[in-house]
Amino acid sequence: MNPLIPVRHLIKTLGYYTDRRARDGADRETAARLEWAGEGLPPGLEVSWLGTAGFALSYEGFDLLIDPYVTRMPLREMLSRQVVRPSDAALDAWIHHADAVLVGHTHFDHALDVPEIARRTGATVYGSASMHHLMGLHGLIDRSVDAEPYRVYEEGPFRFSLIPSLHSKITLGMKVPMGGELTCEHLDGLFPRAYRCGQTWAFHIEVAGITLYHQGSAEMIDEAVRHRDVDVFLCGIAGRQFSDRYVRRALTALSPKWVVPTHYDDFFRPLEAPQGFAPDVDLTGFVQEVARVSGEFQVRTPRLGG
Domain Metallo-beta-lactamase: where (predicted)? Predict the structure, then answer.
């Protein structure tokens, strides 16, 4: 690796904080101007953003969740070595039903709430070996599927497969934070940094005559993608600056009709609070990057809870 690359990333990140107020203002304007009103979705299919990379898909009385994280622990708790538990109040407010849950990787902002959601709802959880291990720690191994790549699973009206993927190296472009497998052996050891990434998945979903593709982290294995011409691309954008030409590669591989950016919000802020933006994600810049690839892609921004 070029030793100057981490230095460049550090300089760019520090520069973000010098004009954060202006950039957040621009991102708020972009989010409002491009707010998604369900374009590209067939009648009866509802897609709700749960913040971070989380979504709830509802169709014909069946609910499929993706990376549901609603607890939103404060930053000070994330930096501690204390066990952080799912928030009953947040789950009561935001998660009312689930039949199946897809988990892209096992960082806390994707996986922390999943075992409790499965316990409450009886949902089946699909994910990596690390997710399977986490479910076992909670005594829920019977609700967990250690998924096989590309195998088509069916839950109600949904057909989906898990696509091998990667997590962006957001530690100055050098490594994945909290990389490796989740190996904690006791619940009392599940402090935030114990939620190791594990295998990373993307999801291809078919329902109601359309296809959706969910990429929860801004990196991918180009040759692993087997689906083109998807209808809706739920595109994680946090950390994309550390992945070479990520936006161009993803759009070229998937050729989506609608592009819905996600994982750009401040996930240390409660969902009921006014939306904030994650540091240096640059939602406005993402929209411009998409336009530079092709003006044919339609970008829409999700509304929290909507």
Answer: 51-263
Rounded to 5 degrees, φ, ψ at 238 are: -70, 130
Question: What is the rounded CA–CA span in Å between residue 150 and residue 224?
Answer: 10
Q: What residue spans of 122-239 are helical by DSSP H?
A: 129-137
Residue 163 backbone class (left: φ over 0; alpha: ψ -120 to 50; beta: rest): beta
Calpha distance 201→161 (Å, rounded):
10
Q: Give per-residue pLDDT as tens, 209-260.
A: 999 999 999 999 999 999 999 999 999 999 999 999 999 999 999 999 999 9
* Pairwise CA distance, residues 250 & 230, whole Å: 11
What domains are there in the chain, each with its CATH number? Answer: 4-9+20-299 (3.60.15.10)
* pTM of the full structure: 0.94
Strands 153-155 and 158-165, bridge-based pairing:
antiparallel
Closest residue by Cα to residue 128 from 167, 91, 90, 88? 167
**Residue 105 · residue 155 · CB < 8 Å:** no
Over residues 256-270, the pLDDT tens digits come to 999 999 999 999 999
Alpha-carbon distance values, 1 to 4, 5, 174, 228 (Å):
9, 8, 8, 32
